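User: My collaborator sent over this chain with a note saying "see what the structure looks like." That's all I know about it. Can you take a look?
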Amino acid sequence: MSGGAVDVVVHVDGGARGNPGPAAAACVVTDAAGGTVLDEASLVLGETTNNVAEYRGLLLGLERARALGATKVSVINDSELIAKQVNGEYKVKHPDMKALHAEALAALGAFESWSIRSVPRAQNADADALVNQALDAAGA
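Assistant: Without extra context I'll predict from the sequence alone. Here is the result:
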């Protein structure tokens, strides 16, 4: 591979207050080498489920990473379900989730390499805080 690879870590999260309920998604993109924050974003989603919000956070993070020119992406979230579905360890059964899952795999396919793993919420605090700020700002 050329020396032009841009390697980022994308912390993503989504959450709903109630399930379904008012929801938001967020991401924090950092430089993989130094951990410097390159971008962060949040999105109010309206009323949806927690799992849909988690997928929306993943898609938002991948979109922002691509916009930065990333070629390698390591995604970190706090949803074991989403990580295992994307990694092919769990089947996707719900129709709404199938479309989001396919969209996520297509977005990941645009990178030279990618990985996704789940961590405890405390290790995903910045993205989690952005979700809560977005929901608070929306009056949810």
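A starting point for your reply to your collaborator: Strands lie at 7-16, 21-31, 37-48, 72-77, 113-118.
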